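Aim 2, interim progress. The first record below pairs a target sequence with its structure tokens.
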Amino acid sequence: MNKNNIKKTGLIILTIGVIMTIFTTFSFFTKENVLDIGDVQITRDQQHKVKWPPFIGLTVIGLGGIVLILAIRKK
């Protein structure tokens, strides 16, 4: 990897960390069959939430910063 690619990777990791710190919840929906009799099907949307504490985002910010600093120092 060259220096520019490492810088870009560091910036991407840093940006993901900022987003993870601001938004600590991610939710998505899946379809669940409630009733299935012949041609009749009844489904419902099941919501799933994924949560993480803000310090996880801060840790990712730190890792992105370390990668960025190492890329700048690389000769």
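The second target in this work package is listed in the same format:
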Amino acid sequence: MKYLFWNTNKKNLDNVISDIITEKSCDIISIAEYGGNINDLIILLNRNTLTYYKVNDIANQRIVIITKF
């Protein structure tokens, strides 16, 4: 299982994040202080027939969790 955590410092880095996730085959991704639209990132990730989902916010809304599971 591969895990990626990245604090984007409120920047939109969708293409960079997507490339890393695809290249490294990450299973769980946590993004802190995300500056983009999470739905756009998930669409970008799923363009290669992978299926990623956003996990519902639990307590901290500053961290977004995306997973294959």
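Strands lie at 3-7, 28-32, 53-54, 63-67. This observation will shape the mutagenesis plan for the next reporting period.
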